[in-house]
Amino acid sequence: MIEPIIVVAVLLGMIGAGAPIFLALGASGLVGLWMARGSMAFFFAPTSFFGQLNSFELIALPLFILMGNILGATPVGQNLFRAAALWLQWLRGGLAIATVGASAIFGAVSGVSVAGVAAVGSIAVPQMLERGYSRTLAAGSVASSGALAMLIPPSVPFIIYGAVSGVSVGALFIGGILPGIVLALALSVFIYFRVLLKPEEAPLGDADEAPLGEKFRALAGIWHALLLVAIVLGSIYTGIATPSEAAAFGAAGAFLIALLIFRCLTWRKTLEILTASVKVSGAILLIMGCAKIFGDYLNLVRVPESVSAALTATDLPPWAILTLVMIALVLLGMLVDAVSLIVVTTPILLPLVTALGYDPLWFGIVLVMNLEIAVVTPPVGLNLYALKGVCPQLEVEEIIKSVVPFVVVQFAILMLFVLFPQISLWLPGLL
């Protein structure tokens, strides 16, 4: 078993040397295939790459990214925060709780956590700091709640997991709804009790509450985007459309909303959106294809079966094994991006999960919940640097410090769904 060790060493060495992750995965996988099958490796590798990407469901990925980028270019994110702030301004810590709500809803609009942090954080953090909120509460609430976009459908990580595992993307979307709501509520409850115990972190709510008419007028800037998302997801859940067909409708609808309602699209802006969408989609697909080469080598030398057999042969109960797996994924998520983590670990861990008697659908949900923690933990936590980019008044060090208590809450909710799988599967089973 010296060859897998060499392959992993090549992978870690290339990553440590600063090589792009797709190159490190593809090259190390090719080295492994060459050691195992000689010159046939140069036939196996392209076949693995093409086989991974030759999936109809993957069409949904660039289309949902395009939909999110288009709506991200509109004032929807800012309008969401303004509306939530008006409805919660009476509450101590209301702006921070409004940030969680706005980020959760924007997650359903964009499906990309970084976009949510940028859109909501650019207005939420300055307003919170201006009204006397602590810097750690302002930064932590934005960075952590932005990660909800990974779990609340339409979710890009769910599409990737579905393509790798063969689990229905529609079922994954349904399964992500309840955990997303629970996590958003948990973050809001944490903020409420935090400011209750430490009143200096947030001022009292406004004594003069906004008129009801003003509150409803604030919803006028978001209803069309929310209706579009409801139609897109509703068509998937009811079986009217596949995720790919719904994504195409969503991208077209987002374009019409940006063009006709918000009137914020120019030729230059449209070209920028298309360019950014192509770059992100291309990068994700390239990582997926190269990670499949690496994963196929591991399958060829039966690494997943060996790991599964070794862990199931221990005297540890299933919940203890899963807890160790979740901790390992949290640590890996601090070093590897979410796409690579899904594509590389799924072929290894899915046989173990099924051997322990768990549902692959449930594992996809808790895996994405785990990735939510990964995007807010250094050194690869993209949400941290996205927040720094839109809020230069914050230091990276204090942003990192601010997310620590929120990460504890996220991990506690993760373990709730790990220890009680039936919670995750209740809504998909119902629908």
From TrEMBL:
Its main location: membrane. The keyword Cell membrane applies. Keywords: Cell inner membrane, Cell membrane, Membrane, Transmembrane, Transmembrane helix, Transport. Residues 9-423 form the TRAP C4-dicarboxylate transport system permease DctM subunit domain. The chain crosses the membrane at residues 6-35, 56-76, 96-125, 137-164, 170-197, 218-240, 246-266, 278-299, 319-349, 361-386, 406-427. It is found in: Cell inner membrane. Signal peptide: none annotated. The keyword Transmembrane applies. It is a multi-pass membrane protein. InterPro entries: DctM, TRAP_DctM. It holds the Pfam family DctM. The complex comprises the extracytoplasmic solute receptor protein and the two transmembrane proteins. Part of the tripartite ATP-independent periplasmic (TRAP) transport system. Belongs to the TRAP transporter large permease family. This is TRAP transporter large permease protein. The lineage of its organism: Bacteria, Pseudomonadati, Pseudomonadota, Alphaproteobacteria, Rhodobacterales.
